[in-house]
Inverse folding.
């Protein structure tokens, strides 16, 4: 596996499990800083367990985890929660809580003993509501929101935590396609809150973009790790893809390197063609069945897509 | 994308910061208003309890008695105020506050609107232990109070042990209590608690049969939840317990706020729901048992204080608000039970029970599918 020059999370020989059962590992993994990493894999392959291990909800059976160069062992829980945030698969929405109150819960690790709040908290909540476009819904009860709005509210909670590393466990389940894309594009653009930007923090962001200032003026991005079910969504949004099978890392690399017909067969048992998105250039997975192939052959269609559209399969040795 | 990052969003001409500031100021204002309002109501209620009713005392006379002066022409006034009316009012306020705080801690830890020490057998366990030591060894006074504390804690521990998921199931991993966190979030705790509560009632009923005629009368009144027998000595124990445990409870209550959002997110927010929850249940059980030791089991006070306080604060869980609500409920209930029904002097617990039952049914009906 290609070691990243600047990993935000480094896992070495990590195993995780419940009771007597080992679910994940041993896993060696580098997760690149300031990029979006998607973890893909079939149901039950240990993706969510890996995230539980990274939030230390599940203790490591063996191995070491380093976050931003510091070993997680003996790292106090509250302090750790100021560095790594998690949006779990199915959080509980308490009764009678407004969006603002929900997002405010994300400030917990920044608070003192009796939970009193500060000016910093107000600013962080406002910023999170702004980023997720929820300002107008701030006073609404969360149970009144649509699925997409509610998912944005949960994301806002995690953003209010203001961590450089954000873990998301299937953030797009229950969302329709347009909301999936919208949410993941937002996730991809999230800034690292611990790196001060030149412009003001919240309301006073002056439009200072004059000619010549482009990509270089973009704030540094947060490190995002998302477990995703939707392969094409992962291909569209991720800079880095980790494919897991049976608790092991089957492949890691760019979407083009990982999402190949061979690997899809190995990891998901899925027969698929992979073509290139004509506009954005990322790989697109087209699932096939034996019946599809047979009927295409009968009708005289080629089952292999034209060579110009096929992505070159990455050499297998690079993936290991 | 870049628009999201750079343009300040506007809601009806206000920025996000202004909106959030406004919402927070409102919420804080409402909480302070509720806390001050409840405190005023409590002082007024205690004043009414002491000054009005069966033996009316004028305000200047009350302060004169407190200052140790003798009242001309009313030699008994001093005794009635200092040994009868004032201790009842103070005990009612303290027991109510302890029960209210205990209910808030159970409610938050177990994430269930029915989770409270009086539903889960803590008060019944305390009552059973107290009656048992009375029946077995004729232990009275401080010994009974200690037995009640031990009984309440023992019941909490027993229910917790029974409701721990087995080793084979998911989530029973960590040394910090994965199994514990599983037990705290589940329905098993509630079911086990209800069963133990019924057992506690049975123990009380059978132990009463073994009592002498003299003790039986006192025990019957006490197990119904009554302030008749309070003494300054008992109030002293309860006051010390409350003074120590209420601030601890408030800190634990605040530390548990992430667990409202489920165990996974709570861990992500740097909370340890298992460990903190265990502490909160221990403190809650001690508060409920201490109140029970002083006044007998006052039915439904712990269960009702939390939802009423939440209704007042607009959904914001607050332990001080729940404690004040409990205190107001018990003081008012004691006054009504003693004075409102003509010559009949009911035990306070009978009145809180009668008022609590319909409210509990209403809570059950409000707990619709999906809304937790």
């Amino acid at each position: 596996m290609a070691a990243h020059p600047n990993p935000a999370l480094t896992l070495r020989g990590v195993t995780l499990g419940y009771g007597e059962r080992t679910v994940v590992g041993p896993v060696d993994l580098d997760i690149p800083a300031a990029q979006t990493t998607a973890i893909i894999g079939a149901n039950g392959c240990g993706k969510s367990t890996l995230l539980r291990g990274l939030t230390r909800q599940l203790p490591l059976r063996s191995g070491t985890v380093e976050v931003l160069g510091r070993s997680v062992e003996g790292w106090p829980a509250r302090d750790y929660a100021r560095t790594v945030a998690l949006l779990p698969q199915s959080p509980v929405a308490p009764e009678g809580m407004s969006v603002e109150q929900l997002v405010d819960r994300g400030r917990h690790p920044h608070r003192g003993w009796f939970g009193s709040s500060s000016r910093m908290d107000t600013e962080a909540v406002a910023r999170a509501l702004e980023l997720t476009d929820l300002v107008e819904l701030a006073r609404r009860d969360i149970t009144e929101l649509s699925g997409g709005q509610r998912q944005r509210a949960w994301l806002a909670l995690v953003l209010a935590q203001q961590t450089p590393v954000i873990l998301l466990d299937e953030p797009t389940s229950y969302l329709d396609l347009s909301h999936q894309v919208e949410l993941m594009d937002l996730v991809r653009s999230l800034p690292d809150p611990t790196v001060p930007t030149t412009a003001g923090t919240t309301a006073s962001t002056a439009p200072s973009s004059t000619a010549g200032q482009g990509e270089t003026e973009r704030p540094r991005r947060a490190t995002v790790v998302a477990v995703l079910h939707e392969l094409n969504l992962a291909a569209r949004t991720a800079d880095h893809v980790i494919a897991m099978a049976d608790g092991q890392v089957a492949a890691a690399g760019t979407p083009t390197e990982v999402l190949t017909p061979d690997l899809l067969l190995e990891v998901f048992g899925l027969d698929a063609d992979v073509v290139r998105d004509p506009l954005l250039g990322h790989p697109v997975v087209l699932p096939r069945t034996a019946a599809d192939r047979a009927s295409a052959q009968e009708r005289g269609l080629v089952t292999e897509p034209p060579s110009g559209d096929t992505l070159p399969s990455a050499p297998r040795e690079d993936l290991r | 994308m870049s628009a999201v990052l750079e343009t300040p969003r506007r809601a009806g001409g206000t920025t996000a910061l202004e909106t959030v500031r406004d919402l927070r100021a409102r919420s804080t204002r409402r909480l302070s208003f509720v806390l001050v309002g409840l405190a005023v109501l409590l002082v007024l209620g205690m004043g009414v309890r002491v000054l009005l009713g069966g033996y009316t005392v004028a305000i200047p006379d009350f302060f004169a008695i407190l200052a140790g002066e003798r009242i001309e022409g009313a030699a008994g006034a001093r005794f009635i105020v200092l040994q009868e009316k004032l201790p009842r009012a103070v005990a009612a306020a303290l027991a109510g506050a302890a029960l209210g705080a205990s209910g808030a801690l159970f409610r938050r830890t177990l994430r269930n609107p029915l989770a409270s020490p009086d539903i889960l057998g803590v008060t019944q366990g305390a009552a059973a232990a107290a009656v048992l030591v009375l029946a077995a060894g004729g232990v009275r006074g401080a010994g009974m109070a200690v037995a009640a504390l031990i009984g309440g804690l023992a019941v909490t521990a027993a229910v917790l042990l029974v409701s721990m998921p087995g080793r084979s199931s998911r989530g029973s991993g960590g040394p910090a209590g994965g199994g514990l966190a599983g037990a705290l979030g589940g329905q098993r705790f509630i079911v086990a608690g209800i069963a133990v509560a019924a057992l506690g009632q049975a123990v009380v009923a059978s132990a009463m049969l073994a009592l002498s005629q003299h003790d039986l009368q006192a025990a019957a009144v006490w197990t119904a939840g009554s302030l008749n027998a309070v003494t300054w000595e008992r109030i002293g124990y309860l006051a010390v317990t409350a003074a120590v445990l209420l601030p601890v409870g408030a800190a634990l209550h605040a530390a548990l706020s992430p667990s409202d959002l489920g165990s996974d997110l709570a861990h992500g927010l740097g909370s340890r729901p298992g460990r903190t929850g265990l502490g909160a249940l221990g403190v809650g059980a001690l508060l409920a048992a201490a109140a029970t030791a002083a006044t007998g089991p006052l039915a439904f006070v712990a269960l009702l204080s939390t939802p009423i306080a939440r209704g007042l604060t607009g959904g914001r869980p607050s332990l001080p608000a729940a404690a004040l609500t409990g205190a107001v409920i018990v003081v008012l209930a004691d006054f009504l039970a003693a004075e409102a029904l003509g010559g009949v002097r009911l035990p306070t617990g009978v009145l809180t029970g009668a008022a609590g039952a319909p409210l509990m049914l209403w809570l059950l009906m409000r707990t619709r599918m999906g809304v937790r």
Residues 198-216, 314-320 of chain A have pLDDT under 50 and may be disordered. DSSP finds eleven helices and twelve strands in chain A. The CA atoms of residues 245 and 267 of chain A lie 6 Å apart.
